[in-house]
Write a structure and sequence with these properties.
This protein is mainly alpha-helical. The chain folds into 2 domains: 35-119, no CATH class; 134-232, Tetratricopeptide repeat domain (Serine Threonine Protein Phosphatase 5, Tetratricopeptide repeat, Alpha Horseshoe). The chain contains 12 helices and no strands. Helix 8 runs antiparallel to helix 9 (176-190) and helix 9 (176-190) packs antiparallel against helix 10.
């Protein structure tokens, strides 16, 4: 057995040595190609770094500067000026077109979506808000909730409900969650789904009793319970 073990160990060592020899031979035979590959990787990494620092960073700053006036119009509820500009300053739509690769452009999609919602262009609001992506704990659920509002205005209650539920569950908190649970409950009532509406209202009652919605939720719970009984 000892001899077999020694023989096996010797065979393994020979195999390792043979593999190393083959690897060395491969590197020697393909040295030029491998050098080009390494240089290529270095160029790509260097190019990406240069792109971010020398091109994208200044573009980002420029985009934010351009957006300053549009944001002021937005805060003053001058939504058409915020969207289209005032002749001297760009609106959010122009910023999206000119700075599509930037974070500022992404944020402009959000502003544009909310602005379109306020001026009654609901499909445009949906298009813009769907182009917006954010992990922000406050803005992200508001964007989903605004999508729910836009779909509700277009009489698509099922879609509205799905976005209200999404907004309520995303980054659960005492501010946005009860707002969208309430809206989801209201739409559920309109769809005749009183069981779901009751569950949503009770979530507000249990989780967010100190919120504005929580302080008045009892009457909604009572109403839906009555509607449930009458439906039977």
């Amino acid at each position: 057995m000892a001899e077999i073990h020694k023989e096996t160990e010797h065979t393994r060592i020979e195999n390792v040595g043979e593999a190393l020899t083959r690897a060395e031979q491969f590197i020697e035979d393909n040295q030029k190609i491998l050098t080009y590959i390494v240089i290529g990787i270095v160029v790509v990494i260097g190019g990406f770094y240069g792109y971010k620092k020398l091109y994208l960073a200044p573009l980002e700053k420029e985009a934010h500067n351009q957006m300053f006036v549009a944001e002021q119009y937005f805060e003053k509820d001058s939504f058409n000026l915020a969207l289209h500009g005032d002749g001297n300053n760009w609106g959010f739509l122009k910023i999206i077109d000119e700075y599509g690769l930037t974070k500022a452009s992404n944020l402009a999609h959000y502003y544009a979506g909310i602005s379109f919602l306020h001026v009654g262009q609901f499909q445009n609001a949906i298009d813009e808000l769907k182009s917006f992506h954010s992990g922000d704990k406050l803005v992200s659920p508001i964007a989903d909730g605004a999508l729910g509002d836009a779909y509700l205005e277009l009489h698509n209650k099922e879609k509205a409900l799905s976005y209200y539920l999404k907004a309520a569950k995303k980054n659960e908190n005492d501010f946005t969650s009860p707002i969208y649970l309430m809206r989801a409950g209201s739409v559920s009532e309109e769809l005749g789904n009183y069981k779901q509406a009751l569950e949503l209202y009770q979530q507000i009652q249990e989780k967010y009793p100190r919120s504005y919605e929580g302080r008045q939720i009892e009457k909604y719970v009572t109403r839906v319970q009555i509607l449930q009984k009458n439906k039977k």
